[in-house]
Fold this sequence. Notes:
The protein is α+β, with helices and mostly antiparallel strands. It has 2 domains: about 1-170, no CATH class; about 170-220. Helices cover about 30% and strands about 30% of the residues. Strand 2 (about 30-35) and strand 3 form a beta hairpin. The protein is elongated. Residues about 1-20 and about 140-150 have low confidence and may be disordered.
Amino acid sequence: MNLRIAIAAATLMGSSSVFSAVTLTAPEEIKIVAVNEQEVKSGLIRKNQTYKLDPGSNSISVRYTEFFQHNDNTHDILKSGVVTVKTPELKDGENYRLALINAPKNFDAAQKYKDQPIVGLYDAKNQLLVQQSGANSETKPLLGKSVLGKAVDLTTKTVAPANQPAPVYTQAALVPVVAKVNSTETAIKTSTDQQLIQLWQQASKTERQKFMSWLAEQGN
C-alpha cells in the first residue's frame, strides 16, 4: 500500500504542469454560461464559483442574475442577456475574478441594471483589466420578441448580441502586451546587430573596403 501511495504521489508531482491553469472566480450574481463558446453547466444554488481556464486570452460569456425576496413574501429573479468578456492575456497559475461594476443596491435599480449590466475582470492585485457592458436590451420585452409567431426567451441564449459595446481595457491589461512587443523588438535588433558583427569579422580586407566605400556613398 505504501508503495502504491509513493508511486501515485510521484506521478502527481511529475505531471503537476499538466494541471497548471488560470483560476477564475465569480460571485453568485454572475452566472458563467460559456467559456470559449463551450457551454458551462451550473447548479441552481451558486455561491462563489471557481473555474479553471487555459492561460492566454479567453472568451467568457456571463449573465447577471439576482434573486430578490420582497416584504410580502413574493420574490423575483432578474436575468440579463449574455455579456461576453474577451480577456487580455491571462498568466499561467494566476488568480482572477469577475465582478459587477456599479452593481445595483435594490430591486428597482436592478430592474434597470439587468438591461445593460457591466462586468469587470480583476487580477490578484485587484486591478481592473477590462470592463464589458452588455447590449442595451431596455426596449426588448422580458421574454424577447415574437419570431414567426413563437416567443424567444433572450435569457436562455449563450451568445452575446452582435450590438454588444466594445470592451474597455485598462493600462494594467495593456502593459504586459507592450512589454512583450518591446521585448520582441529588442531581440530582433540584438539578433541583427550580432549578424552584422559576424559578417564584418568574417569579411576579407577587400570586402571591408567595399563596404566602407558603400557607407560613404550613402552619406552623400
